[in-house]
Every structure is written in C-alpha cells, then in structure tokens.
Amino acid sequence: MIWSEIQAVNSHDCDKNRILRPTGIFRMVQEAAAHQLTAVGQDETDMHAAHRAYIVSQIGIDVIKPVYMNDSLTIKTWEANSVGAKFMRYYSVLRGDEEVVCGSCICALINTETGRFIRVSDSGYAFGGAGDERVPSLDSHGAMNKALTYKKAADFPVLYTFIDRNDHMNNTCYADMFFSAIPDCEKKYMTGISISYLRQAKLGDVLSLELADADGKYFIRAMCGETLVATAQIGAKEL
Fold first, then answer.
1. What is the chain's mean pLDDT, rounded?
2. For a designed S-S bond to 143, which of 48, 121, 152, 219 qualifies (C-beta 3.0 to 4.6 A apart)?
3. Angle between helices 22-39 and 173-180 (to 10 degrees)
4. pLDDT tens digits, one per residue of 154-172
5. CA gap 22, 5 in Å, rounded
6. pLDDT in tens, 215-233
7. Cα(227)–Cα(65) distance, integer angstroms
8. Domain chopping of the chain, boundaries
9. Rounded to an integer, what distance in angstroms lies between the CA atom of residue 202 and that of residue 208?
C-alpha cells in the first residue's frame, strides 16, 4: 500500500539559501512513514511498550531538484520487498506533479530488551510483498574504499538534543552533520546522499569526521575513537 500525505516545508528546516536542509528531507519522509505505520497498527507508543523498535541501517536519497522554503509537497512512501531481517521502505516526493526527491531505506526490527533482530516472517506485520523499488544513485559503502585519502574535517559532539527515543543519536541528524563537513557547503546544494549506520552514537560521544573526494563525490567517515560509526557518500552542486 502506498501512503500519501501533504507536508509543507517549514522555514526553520531551511538554510540561508531557502533550501531544505538534508536532515529536513530525512525527517519529512520518515514522518510520513511513521504515519503509515501508525495507521496499520504499529503505533510507536505501543511498539515501545512491546520492546520493539525499527533501527535504520542504510538510507539513500536522490534530490532531483532542490526543495525550498514553503513548498507544498506530496510525500509518498511504501514498504515492499522485505525479506529475512531486512525491512525495505521507499520514498517519492512530489512538488505538484513533478518528482523532486526519491529514495529508499533499509531497517531492522529489534527487540530492545534482548537486542535481537526480529525477522519479517516473525514480526506479525504485513510485510514481504513485492513492489516498486527506488534505488538511490549513491552508495555509502564507497566510503569504505581503502584507496581513498581521508583528511580530518571536523569534530561533532553528540549532545542531548540529538538523542532520540532509542537512546542514541537520531539517524536524521547524521545528514546535516555529514553535509556540513563538505568544503564551502553554504555555496552548494545536495543532489544525493547515502548513509550506512554501523554503530550507535551515544550521548557524550565525539565523532571525528574524515573527508575524501573523488569523481565529483564526497566520501565521509564518522569515527568515535578507533570505531567506525557511520559512512556517507554525498553529491553536491554549486548554487
């Protein structure tokens, strides 16, 4: 089932160029997904009481055209092709009749008491059907390429305001964090992003952002000490 809803772009989610920030895009599509889950009986409060939570492992978004302050957007999202312990979700964002954003997300459903994964077939939810795929153009696993030369870009402290219901840094916060590591980011707009979440970032952690660029793309790693927390690949163009 495709869920569809209309959302307005808030001014406080936009940068000085009136362009919706990367985290703002993530929040809009994930909010629509949360509304769909609530509508089909997976209310977050009930899931929390049942010690269940969805954890994002990878997300990829293509920005076909920039999204601006006060735009009225139709957010479409659907689940399809989920199998094993991999829950797949897809997104399509339209301004009028024109698609401006699309992408996909891979989640795991976990038991928050035991930390164990819950398979699609054991979830009790209506997942697993086939459906239309939206495969993002970038792959965050490219940041694992050992041939790339990384340089320190910034440090990012994980403060309380970044912590969510699952007691770790919310996945949407990574998008702005990674984009901010790009040189002269205020003169660019994002054309795509892919993030892989490998470890949880907890309150008090300080993430060291390391940047490499190749073939017109930016590759970024977030390290906590010697531990690789997340990787990203970002496409950007000059304004």
1. 93
2. 219
3. 170
4. 999 999 999 999 899 999 9
5. 20
6. 889 999 999 999 999 999 9
7. 35
8. 1-136, 137-239
9. 14
